[in-house]
Amino acid sequence: MIRTETVGRLRVVTLDRPDRRNALRPADLDALEAAVTADSETAARGPVSVVYLHGAGSAFCAGADLDVVADLDDPASFAGHGQRVADAIESAEPVVVAGIDGPARGGGVELALACDLRIGSPDATFAEPGVQFGLFGAWGGTGRLREVCRTGDAMDLALSGRVIDADEARRIGLVSRVVDDPRSVAEAIATNEPDAVVALKRLLRHDGSKAEREAAEREAFADLVSAHADDIARGR
């Protein structure tokens, strides 16, 4: 269900269950985590600096497979499973770019929110429809949605269950750009120097105090200058 392909510094991770709109089962969650985080410890040295996550077929991801959810013996454990995978995506060493080229629903929105960057195509749509039949996204999406969007917009999307298009998603900050080919954005980022890309992700994700963030920034800057002195000199 999860396919991977590495092209230079870019790893393409494909949710490949188009007959179910790429809905996720527990084994799929494990495979997704492994695909995104594989070799992450070597990303700073250059092999993979960007992961591009997208869906096969006409959808990005329908979220959790409702056939699985309906028969859960331990719903809290399933929610925790999804939270761990979303956390792993968020903290992965490479930059993770979600390319949404079709519907993202429920857990699919949550997966996108765990990524560092969300790029939509004109065909992208988003919704949290679980509220309409007694559920909500429990893979950490309630907190991330509020962090990414303003509280009022997050409340509107979560409580209404309505579908929004790519332009509205861009207006509320759910996606950063709307382009014809979302993968092209990931490919462009992957052409940048990988040490700098990985360092920037780490710094932008840093949630410590101001003093801690600034200390980390100084250290990362010094490391990059030391590692790339010749490149910097050529670029003057």
TrEMBL record:
PROSITE patterns: ENOYL_COA_HYDRATASE
Record protein name field: Enoyl-CoA hydratase/isomerase family protein
Pfam families reported in the protein's UniProt record: ECH_1 (PF00378)
InterPro entries (UniProt xref): ClpP/crotonase-like_dom_sf, Enoyl-CoA_hyd/isom_CS, Enoyl-CoA_hydra/iso
Family to which this protein belongs: Belongs to the enoyl-CoA hydratase/isomerase family.
SUPFAM superfamilies linked: ClpP/crotonase
CDD domains reported for this sequence: crotonase-like
